[in-house]
Amino acid sequence: MDKENQEEVKDEIQDQTENVEEAEGSETDTLKNELNDMEDKFLRARAEIANMSNRFKNERELLVRYRSQDLGKKILPAMDNLERAMAIEVDDEQGASLKKGISMVHESLLNALKEEGIEEIPAVGEPFDPNLHQAVQTVPAGEGVAADTIVEVLQKGYKLQDRVLRASMVVVAQ
Fold first, then answer.
1. How many C-beta atoms surround the C-beta of residue 102 within 10 A?
2. Which of 10, 44, 125, 127 lies at a C-alpha separation of 20 to 30 Å from 60?
C-alpha cells in the first residue's frame, strides 16, 4: 500500500473513531438525563408516600379523638329529658324515690360522657362567646351584671375535646 492510501485509511479510521466517540458521548448524556429523570420521579414518589402516610396518621388520630361525637349527639336529648324530669317537684315518697332513680341515671350518663371527653359548656355568669353559645334572647343588664354576660341557660351545650357538639342556648344581658 502506498503512503497516500495509508493516510486515507488513517483519516478514515480517525473519522470513524471520532464518530463512535461522539455517539458514545451523546448516548452517555442521554443515559445521564434519563437517570436524573428517574431519580427525580423516585424522590417525588417517596415524598408523596410520606405525605400520604402522615395524612392517614392524622386522620386516624382525629377518628380516635372524636369517635364519641355521633353517640354524644344522640344522647344529649335524653340528658335534657332526664334534667327536665329531675326539675319536677314531687311531694310523695314514691315520686321522690323515682326522682332519685332518675338522678342516678343522669349522673351515670354524665360520668360516661365525661370519660369519653364530652363536657358541659360553662354558661351562666360567663361572657357570651358565639363559638360556644347561641343567644336566643336578650334582657337589659341589671345591677351587678355586665353587658354581654349570660344570665340564663335555656338548653345546656356540650363539647367533645375542643369541638362543640351543641351550643348552649342562652339569654344574654345587654
1. 17
2. 44
Q: What is the pLDDT of residue 39?
A: 94
Across 55-75, b (16+ Cβ under 10 Å) vs e yields eeeeeeeeeeebebbeebeeb
Give alpha helix (H) positions in 66-172: 69-87, 93-115
Give the bridge partners for 160, in sequence order. Answer: 118, 163
Rounded to whole angstroms, how far apart are CA atoms 133 and 164? 10
Q: Find the helix or strand (DSSP H, E) in which 60 lies.
A: helix 3-65
Check if the beta carbon of residue 71 is closer than 8 Å to that of residue 98. no
70 vs 16: CA distance, rounded Å = 79
- Is the entire prediction scored with pTM above 0.90? no
% of the chain beyond a pLDDT of 70: 93
